[in-house]
Amino acid sequence: MNANLNIFGLTKSFGSQLALDDIHMEIQPGRIAGLMGPNGAGKTTILKTIMQIYKPDAGNIILNGIPLNHNSRQEIAYLPDHNHLFKWMRVRDAIAYYRDMFADFDSEKSKELCDFLKIDPQACVRTLPSGMLERTLIMLTFSRRAKLYLLDEPIGGIDPLARQKILQTILSGMNEDNSVLLATHLVSEVETILDDVFFLDKGCLLASDSAENIREQRGKSIMEYYLEVFENV
């Protein structure tokens, strides 16, 4: 089976600062992968390079067996680490905006997720509390029928109930064909939904493994393994 995402030798610098150093990653269909590391590790840089916001200095990115090209963004549902919606919008306007922008947007799915996440379509984006705004962004992202979902810190700074709802939404959006790459430093909060992990620090990939191997062969939780890896950095 072809991987949904292959990254080979990805390298990126900003001036004299090396942001990514020879990164290799593979994510198979039906898997949720955690891209984990402290702030400044390079997680967002990887996601933005996959989205072609940044141009790599070296390396290749293959999406669904095809090198990245100008059509690739339409196959990726990307949730950045900031609110990208216009402040004048109501939630219903954001839904209409996504429906116009993305051919794979499912209006029925958006209604289901609004109900599940308790989102009011009439609510104004500029007045939404942070937890409800994050729910809204997750709703828009998972209303798309994408092959790859890129999530940048989707549960940062929100209450436990909103966090649980978002994790349930991520799980409910999975099938045998799609995959998720979730960038976060909140390891213990997401480890129960992960199939694979990649530990990143200062632009270097320190370790990668499946959650199953970590638990069964190493006898550790993902958090315990994370602490072990980063203790030796």
Summarize the structure.
This protein is 33% helix and 27% strand. It is α/β, with parallel strands linked by helices and 233 residues long.
Would you kindly provide a written description of the structure presented here, covering whatever features stand out?
It contains 8 helices and 10 strands. The mean pLDDT is 94. The radius of gyration is 17 Å and the shape is globular. With 233 residues, it is α/β, with parallel strands linked by helices. Strand 1 (5-14) and strand 2 form a beta hairpin. The chain has helices spanning 43-50, 91-101, 107-117, 130-142, 160-172, 187-190, 211-216, 222-231; strands at residues 5-14, 17-27, 32-36, 58-63, 66-67, 76-79, 148-152, 179-184, 196-201, 204-210. The strands form 2 sheets. The protein has a 6-stranded mixed beta sheet, with helices on both faces. The protein has a 4-stranded antiparallel beta sheet with strand order 2-1-4-5, with helices on one face. 37% of the residues are buried.
